């Protein structure tokens, strides 16, 4: 699968997005980040998904079409970016958890703070968005057709470098292995089990 072929369920696309690059051009300059960690979230079948209980004004972008950006605020503090996948009308999206800044490190550092270590510039979904300059205004942006935020294919990632595990910090379906990341990469966030995690069914 091409890393920008998004017309598949989130759990299939999530691993293929590793190594792809998100680029954001602004009046301040350009920042590009290579994706190193993702999490898949489905719709009605996934209790941890924002779309589990159906379409709302907040999650409408998740229902497609694929290739758009779904941006939401986490805990009232941080913006988080998801790439919409799958079939139009069926909610499916991949959360971008972490990445490596490959262009515009100085600008990313201005946004994140002068003392932030390089591997931590885009580690964690909130930091990723901050480094890239993503906010609510980018919700619904088309990543494939000339928007200021663009998704492009990076170098192929060997399968032996990809690891799979449970999603970070979710309380429902916490044991579903829908998190994908690059083995040994210092930009990948640490696993954290939610203190509210509960047993779940499915996979």
From TrEMBL:
GO terms for biological process: base-excision repair. GO terms for molecular function: alkylbase DNA N-glycosylase activity; DNA binding. The lineage of its organism: Bacteria, Bacillati, Actinomycetota, Actinomycetes, Kitasatosporales. InterPro entries: Formyl_transferase-like_C_sf, MPG, MPG_sf. Pfam families: Pur_DNA_glyco. The keyword NADP does not apply. This is Putative 3-methyladenine DNA glycosylase. It comes from Streptomyces montanisoli. The keyword NAD does not apply. Keywords: DNA damage, DNA repair, Glycosidase, Hydrolase. Coiled coil: none annotated. PANTHER family: DNA-3-METHYLADENINE GLYCOSYLASE. Belongs to the DNA glycosylase MPG family. NCBIfam families: 3mg, PRK00802.1-3. Its EC number is 3.2.2.-.
